[in-house]
Amino acid sequence: MKPMPDSTPTQSHEAIMIDVKGLVKKYNQTAVVKGIDFQVRRGEIFGLLGPNGAGKTTTMEMIEGLRRPDGGTAIVAGYDTRKAQDKVKEVIGVQLQSTSLFELLTVEEIVNMYASFYKKSVPVAPLLEDILLKEKIHARVKGLSGGQKQRLAIALALVNDPKIVFLDEPTTGLDPQERRMLWDIILKMKEKGKTIVLSTHYMDEANILCDRICLMDQGSVVALDTPENLIRNLQSESAVQFRIEHHEQVDDARRQRFTEQLNRLEGVKHVSVQGDRITLYTDHLQEALVRFVELAETEQITFQDLQTRTATLEDVFIARTGRSLGEE
Ligand code: ADP
Description:
Elements: E1 16-27, E2 30-41, E3 45-49, H1 56-64, E4 71-76, E5 79-80, H2 85-91, E6 92-94, H3 107-115, H4 124-130, H5 146-158, E7 164-168, H6 176-191, E8 195-200, H7 203-209, E9 212-217, E10 220-225, H8 227-232, E11 238-244, H9 252-264, E12 268-274, E13 277-282, H10 285-299, E14 303-310, H11 313-321
Parallel strand pairs: 3-8, 3-9, 6-7, 7-8
Antiparallel strand pairs: 1-2, 1-4, 4-5, 9-10, 11-13, 11-14, 12-13
Bound molecules: adenosine-5'-diphosphate (ADP).
Residues 27, 32, 50, 52-58 line the site of adenosine-5'-diphosphate.
């Protein structure tokens, strides 16, 4: 007899693990998440990148089933978060903020306690080894460093061997060495086949870790693509940034005229003004620079802090919203 066709979902990385449609959250009649749509694919690291207050946490918590949406749906591994919360809980892992950990328990005790909440769980020792905390197995939580607590919070998110892991700003407040260590751990989680949803306001972190990035601002999705495509679609390879010297002494009309002329310069694709900082985007760097210096001379505008650089995700955000991501 011929075997029956396999009815399990396809293992292709294109399989959809999270399907968000028209998701809305309101507080006091004001929408802080304004009807967003996106899909997360199996095995990818999906980034929610945006400044503080963009709605990243609210979005994640609605998908996790922790906050009730005021509209729209979130389907997680085939289950509707509003209708099948128990099923969703079995397949997801959520990194809690480390401040909510029980300080007096040891690392082993707290992992075992979390494991007891689930029908199935992974053994403690290999879990702690993956998260580089094995030597701290008998240490009390209160003696751990900030980075170690953060790693423990991630270990707790993995205790039920989830298919999807949610990490909300996992490296905020960590020093550069701890951040890099955490990035390695997150990349290893992906290698092991986890689907990861990560929120961050650090563009370097999103760029390094994420397969695709959903750029969020003021409760909306402003762009969604791979980091490479987001930058490529900016259609500008380089950014030229400078400040106008004695900005406050240049009157508004003159500044406005200068900006308009910059916009019309040959080779310049886009101009962004943020206070006294002006950024030109171009894919003809040399030509744009020469024309810019000529224009500044003619207009008797003195510039300072001139820098040129390759366009980044920060530039994508500025081009889409007119504002900066507010990097720390
Ligand atoms: P992010 O994670 O991108 O920093 P949040 O999702 O935390 O953004 O917040 C989005 C907006 O929703 C912010 O303006 C925030 O003040 C507001 N907000 C979040 N939670 C609540 C709440 N429980 N009550 C009222 N407003 C809230």
